[in-house]
Amino acid sequence: MAKKPRTPPPPRPVQKRDGGNRPIQAPQRRDTPKSGGGIERRWLYWGAAVVVAIGIAVGLGVAFAGGGSGKSASTTGAPIDWSAVPNLQTGPPPWGPDWQHLPDRLQVLGLSQLSQEGTVLHIHQYLALYVNGQRVTLPPDVGIYDNSFITELHVHVGEPNIIHVESPVQKSFDLGQIFGEWGIRLTKNCVGNYCGKLAWWVDGVKQKGDPALLVLKDHEVITITLGKPPAKIQTSFAFSKYGL
Asked: What residues make up the domain containing 187?
């Protein structure tokens, strides 16, 4: 009986060789492991969710800290040693500008004698002050010495209660400095020689701490009351009326 012819084996693939006569292997494919991939993805999703939640919480915290106002008051100013401020006014209001004693107060207050208004920093605030139910005016010429020099913080004629902060250098100034020029002590409990229950607001938002430490910012409306506050706390002022 004749034998069936054997089927020849398939030809072996030819391996390509590089210049060194070594076989060139195709790059190996990196398959994603079948196990563990879903768990890693889930951890990534949870991590992203946590980051988003933290961001939302921080944003809400900032919003609530501002008390509903677009501006946040800063009370990180330098405290004033009122016992070192010479010739403070001790009588009842109304209080004059008391510019006669201004040169003696500047060093204690950290202010300077300027030949003209500074232009590097130029901002303004409005002050509403009440002592025992009486409205007290921040008078013109506070911070101006007999037309001989002007300081970084001052009040112009025709613009009572408007604080001008005009400095030749960029730095922070505090509410207590303008009161010091005026010769009126300001603390968390006292205005001048009058002490008791003091409250204060910035843009209608009630604040805590010492108002003298308030770092002044542009277009702030500052209300301070010692004793009974007015029926309505001022929240805005028409700075544009004065071109400010």
From this structure: 82-242
